[in-house]
Design brief:
The protein is an alpha+beta fold and 299 residues long. 50% of the residues lie in helices and 22% in strands.
Amino acid sequence: MMEEDLVLQRKDYARIIINSYRTQKGNTELWFILSSRDFNQGYKRMKYLQQLSAYRREETAIIQELAVQIEITKRTLQSDLDNISDLKNKHENQKELLQQEQTKRKRVINSLTSKEKQLRKELDQKKRIVQKIDEEIAKVIEEEKKRKKVSDLTPEQKLISENFSENKGRLPWPVEKGIITGQFGEQKHQVLANVTEKNIGIEITSMGKSYARSVFKGTVMRVFPITGGNVAIIIRHGKYLSVYQNLVNVRVKQGDVVENKQELGEVFNDPDNGQKSILYFMIFDEKYLDPEMWISKRN
């Protein structure tokens, strides 16, 4: 609209200039004044020429001002268009980021769902392992009952039992090197919310190849496989039982007498879990005891 006004203003101005030129062609302004009939007409002609000159100047100023306003408006509009373009690009970028975030979130949810299923599967596996160990310990106790009362130990068994008890808190670790990564008793699950698990022993983790060893002198009562849990060994120390689970390449058999720190077998080294060797160690005397209270503070 402003540009259309400018075109009209320029046309009007051009028409005024052309008419003025035609009127004055061959006649000067001075002659136009001097050719008046009288002084009054001459004065009026002089005022007319002054008004015409002022009008031209005013029209020129209007045209120039309108041209300047049009240029300013164009720059403002261009700036607004650039801002709109930037906002549109930012909006598109944010939309793309949101889509990426939603996709990522879906992947995380799917991963967590899959992981939760795997963790619950592992929990069920632990329960089956505990049940199997419970069954084997029950068999050991039942066999002892059939032969004689559990409380009726031989002098040697009584001595071993007393020595085992006296060494509470000083027994060697069932592995040469490792750290306790799972504690005894009721524990909150590290990942699953509102889920607890009951540990009948402790979990000791070593890096690389590791060997399980007897924490005290005793007799091997059971060597048995567990589905998904490799091999477990139960050793009798008088009235006490120690259990070592998750072994491979076992070096002892049922009935063997083992000495303190004697190697029993290799702890399974899991290539899918950072080459970790995890031993599950338990102590039993009519009920499961906290092994951490029996072994020394340092291995």
